[in-house]
Design goal:
With 188 residues, the chain is mostly loops. It is 12% helix and 3% strand. Strands 1-2 form a two-stranded antiparallel sheet.
Length: 188
């Protein structure tokens, strides 16, 4: 089922072949048969596509280095997916499921992550500058070295999150739950 959704997604969006990690024969198979076993979508260009409510997550989904800038991924299930190094700049990820996803070094600047589940996600070295994380669940997420300049973390849950190397003074924290069950109200 997941492979069929990816196939429909790629066909509907007119995907351009990525430079790395991509086999053109896989896309041909995807277009002709409608599925692609062990499909590697790393580096795929899906900029601006609408993937609302799709279920494309899972630990076998590789969207590393994919261009999803400006894409509508609202309510999309990308749980456990590999999105390391992906370009999600200005993407709409509101109420999306990204639990346990790998977003290491991903560009999520100015992204809408309102109400998004990022529990246990790896956001190490991710760029979250200007991102809206209002009501986001970041419980147990790894935010080591992430950039949060201008990020809005109002009502976000950061309990048990790894905040090593973060400067939270440059983010909006209003009713934000921090590690140690401490509620921060700076910026309300």
């Amino acid at each position: 089922m997941k492979r069929l959704l990816i196939a429909a997604l790629l066909l509907a969006s007119g995907v351009s072949p990525p430079a790395l990690g991509y086999d053109p024969d896989r896309l041909s198979m995807l277009q002709s048969v409608g599925h692609c076993p062990d499909c590697d979508l790393s580096g795929v260009n899906l900029a601006g596509v609408n993937l609302t409510t799709h279920v494309i997550g899972g630990d076998d989904v590789d969207l590393s280095r994919a261009n999803l800038s400006g894409a509508n991924l609202s309510r999309t299930n990308l749980g456990q997916a590999n999105l390391s190094g992906a370009n999600l700049r200005e993407a709409n990820l509101s109420k999306a499921e990204l639990g346990l996803a790998n977003l290491e070094q991903a560009d999520l600047s100015a992204a809408d992550l309102t109400g998004t589940v990022l529990a246990g996600a790896n956001l190490a070295q991710a760029n979250l500058s200007g991102a809206n994380l209002t009501g986001a669940n970041l419980r147990g997420a790894n935010l080591t070295g992430a950039q949060l300049a201008g990020a809005n973390l109002t009502d976000a849950n950061l309990i048990n999150a790894n905040l090593s190397g973060l400067d939270l003074s440059i983010a909006r924290l209003c009713r934000t739950m921090l590690p140690g069950n401490y509620r921060e109200n700076r910026g309300c």
